[in-house]
Amino acid sequence: QVQLVESGGGWVQPGGSLRLSCAASGFTLDYYAIDWFRQAPGKEREGVSSISSGGGRTYYRDSVKGRFTVSRDNARNTVYLQMNNLKPEDTAVYYCARRPKADPPADWAADWGFDYWGRGTQVTVSS
Fold first, then answer.
1. What is the mean pLDDT of residues 111-127?
2. Which of 4, 52, 97, 111 is the most exposed place for a label (fewest CB within 10 A)?
3. Residue 99 to residue 103: CA distance in whole angstroms
């Protein structure tokens, strides 16, 4: 049974950091690109980052570039999202999702072709 389980969310003050984890089970993580997306209350979901199956290619939405870093440890079946210098506008539920391919598409942020995703973890940034 394919499962993706996010963890690591919480409350943090502006400027703080969190590291999200996405634990995969029921499949071989090595073969799949993984995305992080988020959804804030009353807003459309938006792609945050994408990482290729081997980790060699990473992509970020403009608003998080230089602050967020995506990485993966296929041996541990886990993908990470390190979030630094968090801002109130980063507040959202964060989800990880599997793409049925090794490489993210060029238009990764607009391509919602995931086959599995987790239940999400809440990130709240406020003072």
1. 96
2. 111
3. 8
